[in-house]
Specification:
Mean pLDDT: 85
Distance between the termini: 55 Å
Largest sheet: none
Number of strands: 0
Radius of gyration: 24 Å
Low-confidence stretches: none
Shape: elongated
Number of helices: 2
Helix content: 55-70%
Strand content: under 5%
Order of helices and strands: HH
């Protein structure tokens, strides 16, 4: 779902692949009914449930990551080219010092 960076350090957003993985685990759960110990069933059910919740939350988290990347780029650019970066006015010309 893109939460964890791969071996290259990149987060890849692929909802289709994530959904297919969840569907495979659900199929596994259906095919193993009666063949697992209760702890194994609980673990599989818990993993599937958690993945489904994360799948629903993934678009919002992706949006937040993109916003954080944009902010990071702005900050890096400000340090690389301080004259071109954003500036805040600390005092106006009308104030006496």
């Amino acid at each position: 779902m893109g939460y964890i960076a791969d071996h290259e350090g990149l987060s890849r957003w692929n909802p289709t692949e994530a959904k297919e993985s969840i569907d495979i685990l659900t199929t596994l759960q259906d095919k193993t009914v009666g063949n697992l110990h209760s702890t194994e069933e609980q673990m599989l059910r818990g993993v599937i449930s958690e993945l489904q919740m994360q799948f629903v939350r993934a678009p919002e988290i992706k949006r937040q990551q993109e916003e954080a990347e944009k902010e990071s780029k702005i900050i890096k650019e400000a340090f690389a080219n301080p004259r071109d970066g954003p500036a805040e006015v600390m005092a106006s010309d009308n104030e006496e010092e």
